Automatic annotation (TrEMBL):
GO terms for biological process: methylation. Keywords: Methyltransferase, Transferase. Gene3D superfamilies: S-adenosyl-L-methionine-dependent methyltransferases, Vaccinia Virus protein VP39. It comes from the Bacteria. The lineage of its organism: Bacteria, Bacillati, Bacillota, Clostridia, Eubacteriales. Residues 41-118 form the Methyltransferase domain. GO terms for molecular function: methyltransferase activity. The keyword Methyltransferase applies. This is Class I SAM-dependent methyltransferase. The keyword Transferase applies.
Length: 251
């Protein structure tokens, strides 16, 4: 799983093209249209909290969960800036999720599941979400597609820059393991030391994910392109799943 240590501190700058407003509009419409059984929503893999904050502003009771203390520290700073209180922040591995009670909805976005591990590991995270989800709750999550891994990320190198740092992002596609090895080299202005991180993103088919959801008590209501919010296309790079909790997980 990605640690996102130093990268957490300029994740927002380098993720500037992400359309959080469009994503949140989709989530809000699905939550509202479905009618959650209550107000408690977990943001699983919350990162620096851009989606968490939007949910909180709309009145949901938020539990923000991430495996990176650095990401949670960034979210905590944003909450302090807004003077917002009452959010529960948990540093946890999503495959070992342990909440204090049940939830009525959950989101897991920006390829968090891809970072967790291969298919069986993704399944453990879905199982944990189902364990704490009340019946009729909604779980909205996304994944990067095999197309993105094989055709876009591939064996490419990307250079990301802002005024304070340069990040060299190098990919190595490992098709036999259905994953991409990602190496990040971060150079801050005026700092001779480079900060390096390495992690993997795994991929699987939408059919495999739908089967995992069914196994763990969810019924997939909808799958859409996660960037264009239309029906999935052959070149879709991200898919959004909308799943309803129907029953207890199978053993």
């Amino acid at each position: 799983m990605a640690g996102y240590g130093d990268f957490a501190y300029f994740y927002d700058e380098f993720n500037g093209e992400a359309d959080y407003d469009a994503l949140y509009a989709f989530i809000r419409e699905r939550f509202s249209g479905h009618g959650l059984p209550g107000p408690i929503v977990a943001d699983l893999g919350c990162g620096t909290g851009e989606l968490t904050l939007r949910l909180a502003r709309d009145g949901y009771d938020l539990i923000a969960v991430d495996g990176s203390p650095d990401m949670l520290a960034m979210l905590s700073e944003k909450l302090a800036e807004e003077g917002r209180q009452g959010l529960l922040l948990l540093e946890q591995d999503l495959t070992c999720l342990d909440l204090y009670g049940t939830i009525h909805g959950a989101v897991c976005t920006f390829d968090t599941l891809n970072h967790l591990g291969p298919l069986e590991t993704m399944g453990r995270a879905i199982e944990k979400a189902g364990l704490f989800m009340e019946k009729d709750g909604l779980f909205i999550f996304d994944v990067n597609t095999p197309y993105k891994h094989c055709k876009i990320l591939g064996n490419e190198t990307f250079i990301l820059e802002d005024e304070d740092a340069v990040c060299v992002w190098t990919n190595e596609l490992q098709e036999a393991q259905r994953r991409t090895r990602i190496s990040i080299d971060i150079a801050y202005t005026g700092d001779p030391v480079h900060y390096k991180e390495c992690f993997y993103e795994y991929y699987c088919t939408p059919q495999e994910l739908e089967a995992l959801c069914e196994r763990h008590g969810f019924r997939v209501l909808e799958i859409v392109d996660g960037e264009r919010f239309c029906a999935p296309l052959p070149d879709s790079q991200r898919l959004l799943f909308v799943a309803e909790k129907e029953r207890q997980c199978q053993s």
